[in-house]
Specification:
By secondary structure, the chain is α/β, with parallel strands linked by helices. The protein is 43% helix and 15% strand. A six-stranded parallel sheet has the order 3-4-2-1-5-6, sandwiched between helices. Helix 4 links the parallel strand 3 and strand 4. The structure holds 3-methylbut-3-enyl trihydrogen diphosphate (IPE) (2 copies) and magnesium ion.
Length: 242
């Protein structure tokens, strides 16, 4: 899909702040995660409506296993129930779901649910929704390097890029983190090399269409130089990707 004027082709989001959203309301953290699913559904529709081709979200990090066991199992349950309820709707909206991360560590019934969601939506082409689940940027770079090595291939930037778990999508143009923290937390370490970063103080369940539009507007005002100078950019409006 062509990039519409000022609209990022690929938006990546660290959906952070669910726990604090719940705590502020004296609710259990899991209630915040449930509300986070509602925010994600809203964002999928909003991105589709704005002509964004790829939305990549951080749903569960390699490090999130360190959370209390009841929160981890609650998150697994929310994933399974959201897939059960939403996959058919996603298909109707033309959303192709892809899961990105280490699947081997997941319970068999979760793995099956992921496989089924991907198969059901495989022909959809309005928006690709990459759900990073049991994902870490370091894991991704290491597994790509390990596969290259097993295949006896040289480790070049191009070869490594092609072996990353997100190789099917272009690099994100805009990377949003909600929840007021200013860090990547092991998200897309390789692919975010030239992403425009945007930090929102809103907790993820509160992130709405207006907040997305504010992020896109800010993105549209940025000058992406990819190492070049402003003068060069002004002379040649078509900036090649690095
Ligand atoms: C992000 O929200 C969701 C996951 C990490 C699964 P948090 O659960 O990290 O919410 P806060 O940061 O504690 O508020
Ligand atoms: C990042 O949020 C991971 C996800 C949103 C899934 P965290 O809440 O886990 O990040 P830290 O621990 O504050 O860095
Ligand atoms: Mg957090």
């Amino acid at each position: 899909m062509d990039e519409q004027a000022g609209v990022p082709r690929h938006i990546a989001i660290v959906m952070d702040g669910n726990g604090r959203w719940a705590s502020k309301r004296f609710l259990p953290r899991i209630a915040g995660h449930r509300q986070g699913v509602e925010a994600l559904k809203r964002m999928v529709s909003a991105c589709g409506a704005r002509g964004v081709a790829v939305l990549t979200v951080f749903a569960f990090s390699s490090e999130n296993w360190n959370r209390p066991a009841d929160e981890v199992s609650g998150l697994m349950g929310i994933l399974a129930s959201a897939l059960g309820k939403e996959v058919v709707k996603m298909k109707q909206e033309g959303v192709r779901i892809r899961f990105v991360g280490a699947r081997e560590a997941l319970a068999p019934q979760i793995k099956t649910a992921l496989d089924q969601a991907e198969a059901t939506t495989a022909q959809c082409n309005t928006l690709t929704l990459n759900v990073c689940f049991n994902y870490g940027g370091r894991w991704d770079i290491a597994q790509a390097a390990a596969r290259l090595s097993a295949e006896g291939l040289a480790i070049t930037e191009t070869a490594l890029t092609g072996h990353l778990a997100l190789a099917h999508s272009p690099d994100p143009d805009l990377l949003i983190r909600t929840g007021g923290e200013f860090r990547l937390s092991n998200f897309l370490l390789w692919q975010a090399a030239y992403s425009e970063l945007y930090f929102s103080p809103l907790l993820w369940p509160d992130f709405d269409e207006a907040a997305l539009d504010a992020a896109i507007q800010e993105y549209a005002s940025r000058e992406r130089r990819f190492g070049r100078t402003s003068d060069q950019i002004a002379r040649d409006a078509s900036v090649p990707n690095p």
